[in-house]
């Protein structure tokens, strides 16, 4: 190594230049090594021209910052220090490990990481107490990992793609944080298509069924059937090219096998079948394989280069992998060709004329039915001559309207709106009795907004034609003058929320699950429940997540059930609910899949903790706001009042405006 006015140069034993500092703006006058280990080149005014901390390779130390956009690069091996394929990168939201641009670990999803803020990240740094992502110019800790106190600490990205933090203890370096925890999560740990199986304390590399090779000798896994070959990506150096669909086959991996990037990438398509997913890969020359999730119809494409396959231990994983191959015998294509060759000529001749004849017959039948059908459209005239609204609108006829009541008739039925049984955002609800002694609930709408009479009646016609076991039936309506009223059948047991959270008789578990399977809960996520770590309120979604992580599902059971629900019963609902509030909308199941999971039609989804960590941030906000509210005299709302309580505590409109109220939009993001 040599120091010249142009900077530092490093040459080999033959005098060949191996490395040098970049071109500097002025001559170098001095070299300085700081106490933190930062090597500086100074000009004649002692101003810094170049600092080693600004150009990290595979290691950072205490006092060194790794700003957003900067990264550590792994060496190829312990002896070849040229740049490898792994990177540790700081983004504006996180710190991530990547292989060829694909993520396989995130700091925020780690069990030892504590998310303090949703502020943008500025840089990563270490100190004597741990590893930190700072924002706000260093004034805000966004994410932190607390480690044992040490004044000597380094973080390094090794050649295998592991991010390792070690502290100095005398002359030894002790490893204290290494990620990923599971070596099988490292993308190329077993080579191309190598199968990584995790066993306690180590890993085993092999080839999947239908593939052969010797992973212990770094021989790549190839199809056992030599008539198949693996294509190269079109943007690789192997001159890959677009393939004819008839040349492509897909070799199926065994159930339970997964790929490292599936948990960090977005499917290219949702709700498609396997054939469509494979066709997408066939048409894209950079695609080398697919993973297809049966429960959601999600399609993942593996592009550019294949890494290792993971033998998953998760029973809920229903993704199936298929490796793209060229050649071999395709029974599907042969069958199609045979059917084409053997298709009868007479059918080709007769099919068009037969179809034309059937279309004519169908048109005649429809015309006859239309001429003879009874008139089923019942029009309702609005604005009668003796009504105060008759001058507002011309008579309007809308098909499908339910019974229309006069305002005076509903005044009599409700005893001049004397018995109020509820209230909502659009008005109050009153109990009434019609002339035929039928009990009804009459909603008197106060907020008319800009809605006209015709628009109101059109909506009523739509609602009146909807019939479902879990929806209260609309009996009729009133649209007279500026009065708007809805008449519903009377439910003598009251609303479901009063049964769940009030003093009504407790609903048994079977009744709750039946309701859960048929309605979509619109809870705003602002309830409190006793904290798992001590007295005081806690944010319920976070409490549910914590109980899920600990496997303590019965901690969420309504105490009024007195143990009549099993841990498996509660687990099913908790897992489905947590899947529904994933931060990324594409990870949330459809309502059809929610119902299927609750009814046992498909396997339960597995909540992704990395997509639920935002609940920890909201939980801390909720707790802080609750403390402020209690200090100011705010009332506390318990999710489950005790069965023997003499009175219940309920929320008021004022509590909804308090700091502790968090909306469903904040909980789960855009839908």
Automatic annotation (TrEMBL):
Residues 648-660 have a biased composition (Low complexity). Residues 415-671 form the Protein kinase domain. The chain crosses the membrane at residues 343-370. Residues 180-217 form the EGF-like domain. Its EC number is 2.7.11.1. ATP binds at residue 444. PANTHER family: G-TYPE LECTIN S-RECEPTOR-LIKE SERINE/THREONINE-PROTEIN KINASE SD2-5, PROTEIN KINASE DOMAIN-CONTAINING PROTEIN. This is non-specific serine/threonine protein kinase. It comes from Tetracentron sinense.
